[in-house]
Amino acid sequence: MKCRTSPGRSFRAAFRLGLSVRRWHVASAGALLSLAFSAIALANDSTARLDTGELVLIPNADVRLSDEDLFISPDEIRVRYLFESTSNEPITTTVAFPIPPVDLSQDVGYSINPVDPVDFIGFKLWIDDRPTAYRIDARATVDGRDVTDILNEYNIPLTPFTADLESLDRLRQRLNNLPADVIERLRAEKIIHGPDWGEGFNEAWTANISYFWTMTFPPGQTVEVRHSYTPVPTSTFYTDYDVEGRTFHDSACIDTGFERAVKKLLPKQEYNALDATILAYILTTANNWRDSIGHFHLTIDKLSTEALVSLCRDGIRKTGPTTFEWEARDYRPERDLTVLFVKPLPKE
């Protein structure tokens, strides 16, 4: 794991590094892999086109998103959409599910059990209850410049996501063991950087991944689209520093009740720290469809009665020991969703 310190935060950085090692032990027992990479958000479907070989989102004025049922937990995302065509003719178009860019140069800890270094969320798609195939558009960029062909030339995977520590170590060594002229080219192209902290060379590119498929919306008919996947939320720790510094205060709308509950829990923890998971979900891409969302229903499941949850939603209702629900009519998202889950650290 990589760790950076900054002025005034060296103690906290060292504290996080120590806990990262401890957390790896806990995570590995569940076949999870804690990696360092940038925040990944998940997104609403949107119509798209393939423009010069790249997936580009475009508005669609003829298809209306009449209903969306969204389920979010730290372990699973499920979404059910009902689309209505307002056209008198069949509409055949490309629909895309984009993952926001993954900046591999960032040092943020995550837990992940990847099936594939590209399809690392295990995306599944159904249209009208039929399992449906999809394609993946995967590219590497540096400052907006496509460097995918260069990675392919030297057989460098788009992401370093692997299933175990040994595989991760072998992958890291591949960068370090490349011929000197190749390393110089990669550094000149700003594809790698380092050595950092004595760990050798590290990825400096951004992975851009979108799932897409072609589907037809018949005139005057409703089409159901469902998909599910395993989210890859930010995995970190919540401490007194976060309470005092109001970390996530704006993005997750932390209120005084949440802060009081955190302050009550912190002194009971071995490291005076709580396990924090930050899950981001992009809602605003739904505005590419015609009009607003007719009916929107959100379910949040924190999975544990010991956990706390915070998000920016007025009027959310507690509907079960671990579940909360919110719904709206004629809903036009004005901001994306950030959900903060906080709970006690696992016992060793």
Description of the structure:
The two termini are 20 Å apart. By secondary structure, the protein is α+β, with helices and mostly antiparallel strands. The chain has helices at 10-29, 148-153, 165-176, 180-188, 240-245, 256-265; strands at 33-36, 41-43, 46-51, 54-57, 63-72, 77-85, 91-103, 109-112, 124-127, 130-131, 135-142, 145-146, 192-193, 202-203, 206-217, 222-229, 234-239, 273-282, 293-301, 308-310, 317-318, 323-331, 337-344. The chain is flat, with a radius of gyration of 22 Å. An eight-stranded mixed sheet has the order 10-9-16-6-5-19-22-21, with no helix packed on it. The protein has one domain (10-344): Sandwich (Immunoglobulin-like), CATH 2.60.40.3680. Mean pLDDT is 81; it is low at 1-40.
> What is CATH's topology name?
Immunoglobulin-like
Taken as a percent bin, the fraction of beta residues is 35-45%
Q: What share of residues is helical?
A: 10-25%
Give the CA-based shape: flat
The computed structural class is alpha+beta
CATH class descriptor name: Mainly Beta
Total number of strands: 23
Element string (H = helix, E = strand): HEEEEEEEEEEEEHHHEEEEEHHEEEEEE
End-to-end separation: 20 Å
The figure for the number of domains is 1
Strand order of the largest sheet: 10-9-16-6-5-19-22-21
